[in-house]
Amino acid sequence: MSSPPAPAVLPDDLRLVPLTAQDAARIAPLNDAAYPAVPITSPDDLAALVGLAALPLGIESTEGELVGFVLALAPGAAYDSENFRFFEQRGVDSLYVDRIVIAESQRGRGLGPVLYDRVFSLAREQGRREVTCEVNLDPPNPGSLAFHARLGFVPVGSQPTKGGTVTVQLLAAPV
């Protein structure tokens, strides 16, 4: 059995910040720039999602620019998402990552693992068995699939979503 990877380190020019519903206008452009990996989402809908999140966490530059974020939801959240419902119905106690986004200009700096370290830490604190998420198969997102595989995520299903316009791979990683 291999040892767990070393914790990811946040570069000195960035900081982790809790997000609130009031940050929705800052989150929306970053979120929408990541389409089709994540759906285009209005600031009002993002504000509601941040309000539901057990972990609404951002990464910002020392100048205050939001360059990444993760929104993770605990079981029982009042969230009407096909993918969240899949994991709820699966019956395994998990912390669900609805979306994780890193600005294109910041990719390759290890920010995704920094955010996932926080997700897994919260899942351990809450006594969850796994962390779950989904990644697009169609339209394809091979970079995200490879990233999640490196973090220990394995497929547990797939399903069409958004009225059949998107197909996702549903993934889980043990806590």
List keywords for this structure.
seven-stranded mixed beta sheet, alpha+beta, 31% strand, 175 residues, Aminopeptidase, single chain, 5 helices
Described by the principal axes of the CA atoms, the overall outline is: globular
Q: Predict the CATH topology of the domain at 14-129.
A: Aminopeptidase
Number of strands: 7
CATH domain class name of the domain at 14-129:
Alpha Beta
Instruction: Work out the helicity level.
Output: 25-40%
Name given to the CATH homologous superfamily of the domain at 14-129: Gcn5-related N-acetyltransferase (GNAT)
Low-pLDDT runs: none
Rg, Å, rounded: 15 Å
Figure out the total of helices. Answer: 5
The computed structural class is alpha+beta
CATH architecture of the domain at 14-129: 3-Layer(aba) Sandwich
Give the termini separation: 15 Å
What is the makeup of the main sheet?
Answer: 7 strands, mixed
As an assembly, this protein is: single chain
Task: Strand order, main sheet: write it out.
Answer: 1-2-3-4-5-7-6
What is the averaged pLDDT score?
Answer: 95
Order of helices and strands: EHHEEHEHEHEE
Strand content: 25-35%
Organism: Microcella daejeonensis
Pfam families: Acetyltransf_1 (PF00583)
EC number: 2.3.1.-
Domain N-acetyltransferase: 14-175
